[in-house]
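Q: Structure tokens for this one, please.
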Amino acid sequence: MVNRFLLIVVFVPLAIVLIALAVANRELVAFTLDPFNPGNPGLTVTLPLFIFLFAALALGMIVGSLATWIRQGRYRKLARQRGVEAENLRQAVARTPAPTAPPAGPALPTPSN
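A: Here is the predicted structure, written as tokens:
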């Protein structure tokens, strides 16, 4: 249910916008990696603008995901440590014999005044 809602409300409009962006930005653009000699053909790539836009979007998503993964590392480490600790406690409880009931014997007399 949630997946279908997410698909219809988020991904379909996003796909429409990305397709419109790609159609509107089909002109060839030169991208150069040499700021001192922009005409250097060895370091210049000429592609449609939407490819550069999509590449920048993908790179941003990858860098953001990597930064989030690195920042959450301490929480993953803590979860692993607590998982090991919980497993050790489960094993310790399983090894401990169950307490036995006290032997049934004559009842103790009640104190009198």
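A few notes: The first helix runs from residue 2 to 24. The longest strand covers residues 28-32.
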